[in-house]
Amino acid sequence: MNDQKKRVKDHHERTDLTGEHKLGDAGQMILAILFIGVWLSDAFIFKYSIGLNEYISLAVRLPVGVALLILSGYLAWTSMNIVFSEVRSEPVVIRDRVYKYIRHPMYVSEILLYLGLLLINLSIIAAIVWLAAIVFLYFICRYEEKLLLARFGTDYEQYMCEVPMWIPGFKRRKKF
């Protein structure tokens, strides 16, 4: 198998990857469709819960929202490229680039994507879906971390102590 085919091989078949929750992809897709549907319909059609837009200027919301969308895209692109661009002969705990600062940059990118859209057009109903997505992603992260702990043991536990789950600077306390 040449390198190109090796790189694009279905990630579900790769033995160098640890795995994910069986409902992770479907849950993320459902929440994404729900969020976008609610956000678009509330922001541009029904305008039911967008009253906060009157109190915070678009001149403030738009640049911050766009910055979050750019950061989201960077995290998604970088983390996907790090994890899926090469097949590793030996499975390892990935600790370079964005994984040096946060353990789950793919999920953080999803959270920032929704937040960026929320800032561009504030919708309380969409914010509730965003919070539900955060809770869902938290449980997916915890599930996947159990798999990683089972596979890598103290190496991943040390990584968890050194690198925060989602927010740089918020490190986990060491177990005594």
What does this 3D model show about the protein?
The protein is an all-alpha fold and 176 residues long. It has one domain (25-162). It is built from six helices and no strands. The longest helix has 29 residues, at 124-152. The termini are far apart.
Q: How would you concisely characterize the structure shown here?
A:
The protein has 176 residues and is an all-alpha fold. It has six helices and no strands.
| Overall residue-averaged pLDDT value | 89
How many strands, which pairing sense, and closed or not: the largest β-sheet?
none
Q: Number of DSSP strands?
A: 0
> Which structural class matches the secondary elements?
mainly alpha
Order of helices and strands: HHHHHH
Estimate the strand proportion: under 5%
Cα-to-Cα separation, first versus last residue? 47 Å
How many distinct helices?
Answer: 6
**Quaternary structure state of the chains depicted:** single chain
Q: Tally the structural domains.
A: 1
Identify low-pLDDT runs. Answer: 1-9
**General form:** elongated
**What is the radius of gyration?**
18 Å
Residues in helix, %: 55-70%
